[in-house]
Amino acid sequence: MIRRQILTGGAALGATALSTTLASPAVAQTAPEIRWRMASSFPRSLDTIYGAGDHVAKRVAALTDNKFQIRAFPAGELVPGLQVADAVQNGTVDCAHTASYYFVGKDPTFAFDATVPFGLNTRQMNAWMQHGGGREVLKPFFDSYNIVSIPAGNTGAQMGGWFRKEIKTVADLNGMKMRIAGIAGNVMQKLGVVPQQIAGGDIYPALEKGTVDAAEWIGPYDDEKLGFNRVAPFYYFPGFWEGCLNLSVYINKAKYDELPQLYKDALESACRDATVDSMAKYDVQNPQALRRLIAAGTQLRAFPREVMAAAYKASFELYDELAEKNDHFKRVYDQWRAFRDAEYGWFRVAENSFDQFVYAMYAQEAQQRR
Amino acid sequence: MIRRQILTGGAALGATALSTTLASPAVAQTAPEIRWRMASSFPRSLDTIYGAGDHVAKRVAALTDNKFQIRAFPAGELVPGLQVADAVQNGTVDCAHTASYYFVGKDPTFAFDATVPFGLNTRQMNAWMQHGGGREVLKPFFDSYNIVSIPAGNTGAQMGGWFRKEIKTVADLNGMKMRIAGIAGNVMQKLGVVPQQIAGGDIYPALEKGTVDAAEWIGPYDDEKLGFNRVAPFYYFPGFWEGCLNLSVYINKAKYDELPQLYKDALESACRDATVDSMAKYDVQNPQALRRLIAAGTQLRAFPREVMAAAYKASFELYDELAEKNDHFKRVYDQWRAFRDAEYGWFRVAENSFDQFVYAMYAQEAQQRR
């Protein structure tokens, strides 16, 4: 705040002294022309998730009268989608749009910036990030990578994915090959699953040929595009490893520090704008896609409670193991866990009881219409 | 989009032709100095809900290098809180920050812009407004009041309020005087309640003296400030008449149309920013406030299902009655109802099953800790 006053103090004075038909030099000083490249981790075909990064770029331009222009590039055009953290860290690109859990191979602490199994839902994640200390507790970690990470987009709770056969007990998971990555893969491994890392575009043939028995991706709208319903009949819910997926704009720290405060503000509001925008898009598209999938024969299945409970236990055992070995992980986890518990204590009251009731009434009405 | 290109085309050309140390006249043309006054419907003491309007004002200034300044005034300083729609319509003030359901006395259609009983939750409301056709379907209605309404802030699902005695059946509501307004009041009236319209500051003495038997306000954080826990022991949930409360920035249409596109963009992103920001603030503050209230003796109670079901039936009967008499209401209701049903069909799958499971595990763990 103090910094902002120093930077713009001159501008305000200058603007007052001059008429509005002649711009003050101070405005030009605080509004230099800047061109950035943004490497997305996503393909352009995913208009929702790629679109969130692109939305940030477009809003920044709109908010700065095109003075600060960010151009988004799909995964692979500047750097491969899973290497954008390196590219931002090294300054090869100015910024990126990604899901932080892609980088848990470097350090599992990255996952908290995106999602962890049985973690926060979208509202709770936004709360943690914006006013719950999340960004602050993650800062020293991201500093060590020369990255400034700003929340920018969310998918909401994801689906559990596509299964070639039904899952009735934990034993059914034993030896099952499933496309699932990162910490979620580690959790599933504790339940007997053989996790597979497969890029989005390669999932369909793997599922078709039976190279994998199951695959998780995102939710109805994105999954439908990749056609998984044609090669696996059972669509499970919920994706208990992704109660939401927070997306992030990564910015090279030195580049970020060079920005005038005006552009930092534009970037911040553009990212929050993208968070509202992308969630709204998903929430409009997913219901329609789910209806189409079901009409085309997809069979919706809830994970058995036994499976969820076993995965829950495995998840928190894993977090304890990771916290013991990794100081960054422990520091973030401790703060996050206390926040999560406080959120759950409140959300299960007004929010969840409202949702539960109206969904039950909806189900009853839908039943009657049949 | 076309309009934007026409407006800023000159600016882009000018900026390219000149060096960045001298600002182009075109920038000044698209960035005139503008000062607006915003009349809030809320007192400054409600830092959450008043704060959302104030946040819009501050972000607009930050995004325009203080060229476009909006000054927020608490309810009563410019106009009384419940008269801000008139003030914006007449151009007495440039803009306002309010909850549209305050104006259902003029026309019940206003309610859709805020919330209606058994309506949308926060995510669903954002989806309806931003990509679900909500703003479009409301536009002809707001046009008739010379108002441009932009969503700006949300409270989340509210609590059902403070009751001096327990509610076990619908019969317990008979003759009960409750501070509850608007469409929610009409619904409760169908259940035997005698609804009372009382301003926020007057609720405490009314509840203390027994002039009313019950009063609803917002949620733990705001309710705690007004001290209702000291005069009523039972705190009911959920506020089924407010699955969320969307707040709105009202702008005089002529004033809005005069804004350069740059400022319209700033206003739009500032409002979305406020939506993320205010919801995050509530979601951080409410859990803490609820814990304090319970520690101080407040007894949490869920509304009996019988009461909820009776209110649900009464609500949709009321909507049908209103739709028969009011074309605006009917047009908005028909579109809204189809959207709501589609949302419920999807949200009860991944989103709700995730929430249900983790809250159940939380409750089990909390039980074990005791």
TrEMBL record, chains A, B:
Signal peptide start-end: 1-28
InterPro entries: DctP_fam, SBP_TakP-like, TakP/all3028, TRAP_DctP_sf
Keywords: Signal
One Pfam short name: DctP
Name of the protein in its database record: TRAP transporter substrate-binding protein
